[in-house]
TrEMBL record:
<dbReference type="Pfam" id="PF01903">
    <property type="entry name" value="CbiX"/>
</dbReference>
<protein>
    <submittedName>
        <fullName>Cobalamin (Vitamin B12) biosynthesis CbiX protein</fullName>
    </submittedName>
</protein>
<dbReference type="GO" id="GO:0046872">
    <property type="term" value="F:metal ion binding"/>
</dbReference>
<dbReference type="InterPro" id="IPR002762">
    <property type="entry name" value="CbiX-like"/>
</dbReference>
<dbReference type="GO" id="GO:0051266">
    <property type="term" value="F:sirohydrochlorin ferrochelatase activity"/>
</dbReference>
<dbReference type="GO" id="GO:0019354">
    <property type="term" value="P:siroheme biosynthetic process"/>
</dbReference>
<dbReference type="InterPro" id="IPR050963">
    <property type="entry name" value="Sirohydro_Cobaltochel/CbiX"/>
</dbReference>
<keyword id="KW-0456">Lyase</keyword>
<keyword id="KW-0479">Metal-binding</keyword>
Length: 464
């Protein structure tokens, strides 16, 4: 029987009350699910994600259900956590990690907010709902999708309850901020404003929101302000987490890519469109050895020795009678000197010392003809060395390679990352970097080299 644990990934805090509340929630979740729950954090608290996964792997767990304990889908969920999970997959290839989705807009969370609202209203002096405005206050994000969830939840909370108005605001990062949100409620004619902190845990942010409401009381002494309790340990929060756990365990987790700023062009967020998935050593890579590739290698390639960033011997380009590169004639089958075998996974193409990444959309817009030429050559080359379908219907800066199975895509992704080539996966499709400045003898050859050697090894060795 597969030993399974829940990896509960919190944002992290240095507030003792907030941390205690998080750990209490993790304990309650473990009791409800009857499965071990391993808490971990992106920042400010320990253990980091990678360390928690390592501990689970050493303890003999064979499957982890990784749940981002976040209300919305933003940079932590889309970048930092996936990078941390991928690094762990490379270290523990025998460990299955299934990634869930953030809590998002769920009925159980809506019910929790409604209960917090009803409790606060019952404890306050009576004021007609027709003279009352609701103000849902979120943490705030640089991701439009996450911020839009706050607006959606506010509207759902307001529907059918008879309050005069509903609005929403944010503590930081985006607007409207708390003071402007409260001003808007007053301007709409509300006699009472009920402020609902849309936060999972207590802490400094909650206390600062309460302080801002207190300041508004001084500014508007003739109006009534009520602050509800945050979500906290409400049953609806537990139900929402368990829903996401069940979805992940059943392979039903689905990210909302329709309005993702990394895949769709939003005014004000053009720099994020098609941006590579990365993290840093304060979040997803916290606790990892900085500047070393050794820690991302599977255990059989580590052995206590450093991985060299020096380029290995590269086969020269071979041209056909039309002057085009004959990509399928550069490297030879099962020749014992073939660079595309197991030991080569610890070597690499000539760019090995730096990460080969896609370019930003602005660079592509500045040279569309050059980008089209690179995409065409990469498409021709990848088709020749893999016999796999190639798709260009991707975000700018990427070209897609459609694998035969998800298992194949995952294995190739792990192997290509070791070559220090940026790569992303969407189901069976691998996304590889492209840019208008990519040179035939340089970046194009590096992408094709990494794909050709890993594809060869999958077809000729793994599958056999």
């Amino acid at each position: 029987m597969t030993r399974t644990a829940i990896l509960l990934i919190g944002h992290g805090t240095d507030d003792s009350d907030g941390l205690a509340e998080y750990r209490q929630l993790a304990g309650m979740l473990q009791e409800r699910l009857d499965l071990p729950v391993q808490p971990c954090f992106l920042e400010l608290a320990d253990p980091p994600i990678g360390q928690a996964i390592d501990e689970c792997a050493r303890a003999g767990y064979q499957r982890l259900i990784a749940i981002p304990l976040l209300l919305g889908a933003a940079g932590h969920q889309k970048n930092d956590i996936p990078v941390a999970l991928q690094q762990a997959r490379l270290r523990w290839p025998e460990l299955t990690i299934q990634y869930g989705t953030p809590l998002g807009v769920q009925y159980s969370l809506l019910k929790a907010l409604a209960d917090r609202l009803a409790t606060a209203e019952a404890a306050a002096p009576p004021v007609p709902r027709a003279e009352t405005a609701l103000a849902l206050i979120g943490r705030g994000s640089s991701d439009p999708d996450s911020n839009a969830d706050v607006a959606r939840m506010a509207r759902l909370l307001w529907e059918g309850r008879g309050y005069a108005h509903v609005t929403y605001g944010f503590y930081s990062i985006t607007t409207p901020r708390v003071p402007q949100t409260l001003d808007a409620c007053i301007a709409l004619g509300a006699r009472r404003i009920i402020v609902i902190p849309y936060l999972l845990f207590t802490g400094r942010i909650l206390r600062r929101i309460i302080a801002q409401v207190a300041a508004a009381r001084q500014t508007y002494p003739d109006h009534d302000f009520v602050v509800t309790e945050h979500l906290g340990l409400h049953e609806g929060v537990l139900a929402a987490i368990m829903q996401r756990v069940q979805e992940a365990m059943n392979g039903q987790s689905a990210a909302n890519c329709d309005v993702c700023k990394y895949r769709r062009l939003f005014p004000g967020f053009t720099a994020d469109f098609g941006r590579p998935q990365t993290s840093d050593h304060e979040h997803g890579l916290r606790g990892e050895a900085s500047g070393s590739m050794t820690n991302i290698l599977p255990p059989r390639y580590r052995g206590g020795r450093a991985v060299s960033a020096a380029p290995m011997t590269a086969a020269p380009l071979v041209f056909d009678e039309h002057g085009q590169v004959a990509w399928d004639r550069i490297w030879g089958g099962d020749d014992p000197d073939n660079p595309f075998c197991e030991l080569a996974l610890a070597g690499g193409p000539p760019h090995r010392g730096t990460l080969l990444e896609p370019v930003d959309p602005a660079t592509i817009q500045a040279d569309p003809a050059g980008y089209a030429r690179v995409i065409a050559e990469l498409r021709r080359a990848l088709t020749m060395v893999t016999d796999l379908p190639v798709t260009t219907d991707t975000a700018p800066g990427w070209i897609g390679l459609v694998c035969e199975s998800e298992e194949m895509a995952i294995w190739l992704l792990r192997a290509i990352i070791v070559e220090n080539v940026s790569v992303r996966r969407e189901d069976r499709t691998l996304l590889l970097p492209a840019g208008p400045h990519f040179r035939l003898e340089g970046e194009i050859k590096n992408v094709v080299t990494a794909v050709a050697k890993t594809y060869h090894y999958w077809k000729e060795h793994i599958q056999r």
